[in-house]
Structure formats: C-alpha cells, structure tokens
C-alpha cells in the first residue's frame, strides 16, 4: 500500500483527551455535561450507535440518558419527550437517532429540539449558522472529517475537493465547511450525487475525495488521481458468513485499489466513524459550557 493510513481512532482519542480538562473545569462549577439519546423502534444499527454514544459518555464522565420507545410512538408523544429534555437542566445535548420509523416526521422532531442543545447540528438554525460561516454546534461527521484533515496537516486551501453525496447530514454540511473562508477550509468544492454525469471525470480532478454514498465499492481505483486524499464516510454491511455476526462493515471506496494511488486514505472501520462520536462529545461539552456560562 502506498497511501498513509488516516487513523480515526488515534485522532478521536486525541480529541477526547483534550476534552478532559474542559470537563473538569465544568465539574468544578458543579456542571456535569449531559447527553440524552432518544432511540425509537428496534433498528439494530441505530441501537448500536446509541450504545456507543452512551459508552463514550461514561468513559469521559459525562451524564447520559438513553430513552427508548417503540416504533409505533405517536409523533405528539415524541415531541413531548423532546420538550421535556429541552427543559431538563441536567441535559445539555439531545439527539434523536435517525432514521425514525415511518410515519414519524424527522424534520418536525429536529425543529422541536432547542438549537442550543442540538448536538447533532441538524437544526436549521445550526445549519444556517454553518452556511453563514459562524457555526457553534457543527454536525459531527462533517466536523470530524475536517479534524482528520487538520490532524494529518492535509492542506485544503485552494485545493479541489469532490464530495460524493448530497445528504443533509454529511454531503451538504461537509461541503459547506470546506468552502468557508478560514483555516482548514478555503477549498474549491464540487458536490456530486446520484444524478451527476460521468462521476469518474469529476472525481479524477479532486485533490481530496470525500465519499458519502452508502454503496460499497462505488469509488474505484481508476476514479482517483495519483496522490489524492481519500476520505471514506460510508458504513455498509456486507454479508460474510466467516464472521461471527455473518456480516462485516465496508465503506464506499475500493480500499485496496485506491490505497495504491492515494497519498492518504481512511479505513472502514476506524476512519471517520470514531470521529463522529468524538465530535458529538465535543458538542456536548461545548453546549454545557455555553449553557453554564
Ligand atoms: P444518504 O443515503 O442520505 O445519501 C447518499 C448520497 O449518495 C445521496 O445524496 C445520493 O445522491 C448519493 N449517491 C447515491 N448513489 C450514488 C452514485 N452511484 N453516484 C454518486 N452519488 C450517489 O446517505 P448519508 O446519510 O449521507 O450516508 C452516506 C454513507 O455514510 C452511509 O453509508 C452511511 O451509513 C454513512 N455514514 C457514516 C457516518 C460515520 O460516522 N462514519 C455518519 C453518517 C453516515
């Protein structure tokens, strides 16, 4: 492999360690940052994500609550839960794990979260502040990607970034972050998506390719230029009877082929994934600092 591995575990540990003195300072003021995760239904991947978030809180000494409800909860009852969490002084961060089972309205639920407690950074207030270049609570996966680039001193100024995927939680916000004026940004950003024509000709221009698609092996070796940086956001379960669970996790990128050409590449698992949780912890501490000030 020619490419240097971008190790999300190392960078996330570094970020979590840097949070410790901030958490101690809050505790001296009698404030323990608190995160509430709301889990609706029985989606196993969602349950795994919520468990990892609660575990990360425990490890850091943050207060955490997990509220679980069945998939047939009424929209009004879910909004009531969020309303109570908005008023709960022990809770500084609220996340409602997506996807929500139908017919629950995800946007209405997001709108009901107090923007000051919106540690996922999904509320239109926080999305708007991000676009304006004055963010406080930045959505976790995009922020984690920027932190990875920063840690490995990968220059973004004036460079061509191609983001594949235009979702509200990854593609759009990571593009918005990287195009801003300022350190760790200033890139020329292109967003490609399912309707883009001739994707390889777009991605081959990129100094940095960010794949957030949700389909294994979409980015192949011939789609990247020599020396490009490849960030793989995808988390896909592919069947593998040789593993105890019967599946394994892969990204959106053909890792072996791209690693031959890239200068840097993230693995899956162990790349962007751990960063998402580290940035969620960061946002929870930040929300407690702002709320406690
Ligand atoms: P999404 O389904 O909301 O969006 C996928 C995007 O990919 C869409 O905008 C679509 O236009 C685009 N797309 C689909 N097929 C394409 C193709 N053939 N060519 C070009 N573009 C195509 O997904 P999402 O929520 O943005 O998540 C993307 C992936 O990232 C998923 O695998 C998800 O599990 C993963 N994810 C990982 C983390 C993490 O912490 N690592 C966080 C969020 C999402």
Structure description:
The protein is α/β, with parallel strands linked by helices and 293 residues long. The chain has two domains: 85 residues, Leucine Dehydrogenase, chain A, domain 1 (Rossmann fold); 134 residues, Rossmann fold, CATH 3.40.50.720. The chain is 41% helix and 16% strand. The protein contains ten helices and eleven strands. It has a six-stranded parallel β-sheet with strand order 1-11-8-7-5-6, sandwiched between helices. Strands 3-2-4 form a three-stranded parallel β-sheet, with helices on both faces. α7 links the parallel β5 and β6. α6 crosses α7. It is globular and about 50 Å long. The N and C termini lie far apart (49 Å). The mean pLDDT is 97. The structure holds nicotinamide-adenine-dinucleotide. The site of nicotinamide-adenine-dinucleotide has 25 residues, from α10.
């Amino acid at each position: 492999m020619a490419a240097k591995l971008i190790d999300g575990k190392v960078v996330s540990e570094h970020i979590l360690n840097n949070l410790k003195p901030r958490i101690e300072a809050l505790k001296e003021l009698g404030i323990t940052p608190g995160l509430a995760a709301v889990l609706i239904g029985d989606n196993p991947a969602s349950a795994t994500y919520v468990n990892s978030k609660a575990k990360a809180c425990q490890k850091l000494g943050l207060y955490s609550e997990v509220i679980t409800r069945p998939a047939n909860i009424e929209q009004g009852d879910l909004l009531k839960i969020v309303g109570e969490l908005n008023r709960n002084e022990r809770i500084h961060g609220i996340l409602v794990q997506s996807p929500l089972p139908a017919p629950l309205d995800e946007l209405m639920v997001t709108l009901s979260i107090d923007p000051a407690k919106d540690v996922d950074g999904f509320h239109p207030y926080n999305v708007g502040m991000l676009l304006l270049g004055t963010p406080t609570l930045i959505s976790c996966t995009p922020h984690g990607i920027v932190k990875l680039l920063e840690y490995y001193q990968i220059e973004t100024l004036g460079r061509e970034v191609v983001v594949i995927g235009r979702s509200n939680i990854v593609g759009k916000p990571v593009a918005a972050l990287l195009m801003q004026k300022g350190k760790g940004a200033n890139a020329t950003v292109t967003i490609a998506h399912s309707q883009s024509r001739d994707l390889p000709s777009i991605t081959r221009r990129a100094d940095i390719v960010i794949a957030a698609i949700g389909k294994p092996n979409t980015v192949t070796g011939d789609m990247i230029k020599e020396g490009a940086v490849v960030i793989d956001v995808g988390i896909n379960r592919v069947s593998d009877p040789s593993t105890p669970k019967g599946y394994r996790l892969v990204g959106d990128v053909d890792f072996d082929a791209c690693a031959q050409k890239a200068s840097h590449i993230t693995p899956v698992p162990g790349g962007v994934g751990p960063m998402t949780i580290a940035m969620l912890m960061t946002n929870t501490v930040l929300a407690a600092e702002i709320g406690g000030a």
